[in-house]
Hints:
The complex is a heterodimer.
Chain A: H1 2-19, H2 21-26, E1 31-37, H3 46-63, E2 73-79, H4 84-95, E3 100-104, H5 109-122, E4 126-128, H6 134-137, E5 146-148, H7 153-166, E6 171-177, H8 180-195, E7 200-207, H9 215-223, E8 228-232, H10 235-246, E9 256-258, H11 267-271, E10 280-284, H12 294-307, H13 318-338, H14 343-351, E11 356-357, E12 362-363, E13 381-385, E14 391-393
Parallel strand pairs in A: 1-2, 1-3, 3-4, 4-5, 6-7, 6-8, 8-9, 9-10
Antiparallel strand pairs in A: 10-13, 11-12, 13-14
Chain B: H1 11-21, H2 23-88, H3 91-98, H4 100-113, E1 123-128, E2 133-136, H5 148-157, E3 161-165, E4 172-181, E5 186-196, H6 197-204, E6 212-218, E7 221-223, E8 235-242, E9 252-259, H7 260-313, H8 327-373, E10 377-382, E11 387-390, H9 392-398, H10 402-405, H11 419-422, E12 438-443, E13 449-459, E14 468-475, H12 477-497, H13 502-513, E15 521-527, E16 534-540, H14 544-549, E17 552-553, H15 558-564, E18 569-571, H16 573-579, H17 582-587, E19 591-599, E20 602-611, H18 619-717, H19 722-750, E21 757-760, H20 761-778, E22 781-787, E23 792-794, E24 808-811, H21 813-836, E25 846-855, E26 858-865, H22 895-906, E27 910-915, E28 920-925
Parallel strand pairs in B: 22-25
Antiparallel strand pairs in B: 1-2, 1-5, 3-4, 4-5, 6-7, 6-9, 8-9, 10-11, 10-14, 12-13, 13-14, 15-16, 15-20, 16-17, 18-19, 19-20, 21-24, 22-23, 25-26, 26-28, 27-28
Amino acid sequence: MRARxxxxxxxxxxxxIAGCEDLQAAGSAPVLIGLDAEFGYxxxxxxxxxxxxxxxxxxxxxxxxxxxxxxPLAIEERANHSVPARSIExxxxxxxxxxxxxxFCGRFSPTVLEALPTIQSVGLPLMxxxxxxxxxxxxxxxxxxxxxxxxxxxxxxxxxxxxxEAKKATRVGLLLLNTSWGRSNHMxxxxxxxxxxxxxxxxxxxxxxxxxxxxxxxxxxxEAGAQAILMVANANEAVFLIKEVAALxxxxxxxxxxxxxxxxxxxxxxxxxxxxxxxxxxxxxxxFVDDNRARTKDVVAAAERLTGVKGPRRIVSPVGVAxxxxxxxxxxxxxxxxxxTDRAAIRTAMENLGPYDGLIKxxxxxxxxxxxxxxxxxxxxxxxxxxxxxxxxxxxxxR
Amino acid sequence: xxxxxxxxxxxxxQLRRWLASSIANRITLAAVxxxxxxxxxxxxxxxxxxxxxxxxxxxxxxxxxxxxxDQQLQHILGVAIKDLYSLAENSFIANGLVDSxxxxxxxxxxxxxxxxxxxxxLNIALLDFQGKRLATNATNAGRSWGSSxxxxxxxxxxxxxxxxxxxxxxxxxxxxVPVVFPPTGQAEGVIVGTMDLGEIFRVSTRTLGKDDLxxxxxxxxxxxxxxxRRGRGFTWMERRIALSPPLDSLGLSVVVARNRAGxxxxxxxLVLIYVLIGLVTLLLVLALTxxxxxxxxxxLASLSSTTQEIAxxxxxxxxxxxxxxxxxGTLAQVFNSMIEKLRRARENLESQVEARTSELKQSERRxxxxxxxxxxxxxxxxxxxxxxxxxxxxxxxFGYSAAEAxxxxxxxxxxxEDLGEAVGVARVPGAPGGESxxxxxxxxxxxxxxxxxxYTTPLVPDAGAVVGVAALAQDVTARRLAEAFTEIQRxxxxxxxxxxxxxxxxxxxxxxxCRLEGVDCGAVYLVxxxxxxxxxAAHRGLSAAFVAKTSRHEADSPTAQLVMAGRxxxxxxxxLRRSGSPTVLEEGLRSLxxxxxxxxxxxxACLSLGSHTRDEIAADTRVALEVMATQIGGTLAxxxxxxxxxxxxRKLEELNENLETRIEQxxxxxxxxxxxxxxxxxxxxxxxxxxxxxxxWRQPLNSxxxxxxxxxxxxxxxVLDKTYLDRGVETAMQQIxxxxxxxxxxxxFFQPEKGRRLFDVKLAAAEVLKMLEPQFAAHGIxxxxxxxVHGTSFTEFSVPLQSCGEMGLLGYENEMKQVxxxxxxxxKDAILERRAKRHSHPEERGHIELEFAxxxxxxxxxxxxxxxxxxxxxxxxxxxxxxxxxxQGQGTGIGLYMSKMIIEGSMGGRISARNSDxxxxxxxxx
Lengths: 399, 926
């Protein structure tokens, strides 16, 4: 893990050296952005995607002269394995770094939620490019140091249920990971169904890390009358469900509508041909595919250069890349706006940024003091895995 | 007179007097003393051994209890670790590392509800990788969970760690088990279980004995919870062991001790029991010794007085008093029994003497009776050689009565030798005795000579001097003669069985007969089976003149008639003289015997024996000769049969030799006939061939003749130039070449073949037809070859056919061609004959069909004609040699016979014939 961190850091510095020779010549101290994410989590690609998005954005910023009068941006990276205790320890360590202006978190909401008190106590702005638990932003702290440019569970579940409805599946079963993330989605589902009488949750099952069979729970929901399965899971567990459902007769295969945690891992590779046997859809906020804007192409080109992938369809965990990219740009603007590396000032600046034409959308005002969510339900859509593994938007007509 | 002062005896003197007064007293004192000594020594030894055994037993008990406590501690710790492992692998625990909400909602209830199987209270806590508590089931949440390093070490080493904390009031045992976070596969926390070490120890020492004490110590200091040892003075023995891993790493040890009070009480009870047993034993020994001494000494005194009484009176009626069954009582009983046995022995001896005396008298009477009635001569003579006893048997054997013999010298019985010497006992005292029995020859009162077997016994009284000789004699004359004859007969039988020669056999017969007493010459006559005359075969001990006169007895001679009647004829001297046979008397013969030799009830020979010394042939000798004649009869018959067999064998050999010669002659004749037959066949074929050649040549000869004739004409008309001549020569040469080729073909046909070779049977047939075709054409006979394998047919044979590859055969091609030739010519003859007999329409053409087919490995050939067929009556005989239906001179009758020989002999095939609707049909299978 440490070796990989060093390699990435060297890569970042190589980019900086290549693009900002003038800054290097000036010898200015870099402004650091922390990244505390689930590096080391088996089969996970989310942390790497977030780092890629940050890198591309930092390259662009540094190429334009950096921040605070020519100081380059750089990433200070820590691995938390998704374990809160390690995250807290990492936060404490990074808080002690003078020029570190904020910390980006990873995909796992429970880790972020448990580290939040520490983040608040050390006054370190938290940039959330993935974690979707509502409570990360709706944390009750004031001032609130958490800023999110990502999906919210309370947006994801309605989108997934609407998708089910569009598939004429009004009776759904829930399969939820037994963590705060799963429970957050459970509440969101119950809230949504309570407001929509035509929908009904016919059953719900919890599962744990590394469970390797779901067929009994699945069949229980199907026998209870479920017409679709809403799944809140990560890739490791989802693979087993997909393979087990693919092995059933076609008539017994229900549509599986998944939260986006599965895109944080290499689901396509792990599921293999079984994925094509199942009606599997996943909630998303952004896709590089079929986006012909110049900015998108630039970002894809940078991603190709940094990772060696070929084309927008090959970018892994695209939402992580896109969210981190836009959020890094917003943070850089906040640093510029604050005029220093003072974290409190930067936090305030984040709430008062002007319009920004980002990769995902044009942000009239990304954050306000009352709203720490940069995205909105409008960006949420349903996607599926294409035959080449690319995550592509499902056309409305097919829903 | 003064009173003697009263002497008071001390206890020691009284004791000595008491001891001197009785042996019983001395024995009693000795037994009591010995018993006391033994009891005291045994008591002391037993106490020492018991104490030693107790020490060993207690040491073993303490060792076992120590090990048991160690095992109990290990068991409890093992169960706790296993329980913590199962928790560490539980998903709730893994969730607890990352899910603070889940911890409160799910993990804490889970931990509280967890039932530990350890048996002691176990508090559980989940700690993060820094040792910070995340969740616990302990009511006192603030309690210690061990040092922070125990969690760190467990995570770092990914192994279970154990730690003891003595800081708190109770001594606590911490067990930290790493919790692996599934997504990373790394230990991200620990599950810690705490237990009160004192409680564990109390549970582990439940089975401790009531006199045993135990302590659990850490580095020598006691851990509260074990049984109190109350100081070293109260313990008798203790055992300390270090605990097994992993508890040993914590410096834990167990001390188990046995309470001194327990062993002391046991030893006191033991000493008291020993004293009581000793006293009882002493009293018993005292009483028993006293009783035994009294019982032992009283019978001895009684026995002593009884012995003295018997010695004085000499009466064996006196008995000793028996007082019991012990050794002394037994001694008295044995004494009485011995006296009784002596008395009975005396009485028995007296009765035995009386009985033996009576027996002796009876024996003497029986002996006398025996001597009187025995068949043996019982003779006794004194030292002067005078007979003193003579029994009736002696009278019968020697002819003398007792009155005549008694008082006579032994010379009375002698046949010229000293009888005393002869029988082996000297008549005089002191002479050495001889071997017994001895056989002597005697002369009876009536002058007869007999052989007797003597058994002599010198009569020697107690004083040692010989007073006479007692002898038993048996007449063994007949027995000796029978034995001699048996020996002669056995020897003769052995010799005859190995004899293969008549002359040797007769010589052996003479050897044997001359061994008989009185026989010294003889002759053997063989009966001529044809004439019945007796012919002299062998003789012994006879003069040439006698032999010349008696070499043959005609069948009608008296001697021959008597012999052929099967009766034995004997003549003694008186009879010889009476009959006046001069030949016999001139020869000096005194007696004769002629014994017929029979075999299977027929007289085959005569054994004639004589004596020059005896006046008669004794009856025993005659019987012996008859028996020998029977014995000789078998041998003579066998030898005659063997001689006959030998003659037959020689005759058979001669016959065999002649037979081989005759067979060779017959075989030669047959081969010659076959050669002639083949030659005839060849010649017949050649005749036919010459006819064929004639047909072949007729046309070219005509052409050549025409050319030559034309040349002459051309010459005559003046048109003969070189061109004309060349054309004429060319035409003539073509015809000549054709004729030459024809000759080659025929020559090849008759050329002998050296061996088998592969040839095409269809092409061979075509070549034969090629030769015959002009002849057949002249007779209006067409031929066709059909290959049924490929469905092809050929009627033109001047051009060579091509092999179809299916008709190859390994064999003799020319012989096959000869078969074709025979069959084709037969067909031609049949067609012509039928035509000649006008059985066919004049316009009808003759036709011969040759069909070739395959059936597996076999080639099938069918030759059919329309010649009207073979008469049914002769169809079965057509393959016989010299069988022909053709007119005389037309057929040899060997063509079909030769064909069959070739097909079935040389080719290994089969040939058969049948009639079809049109004619004959021959089938060949090769």
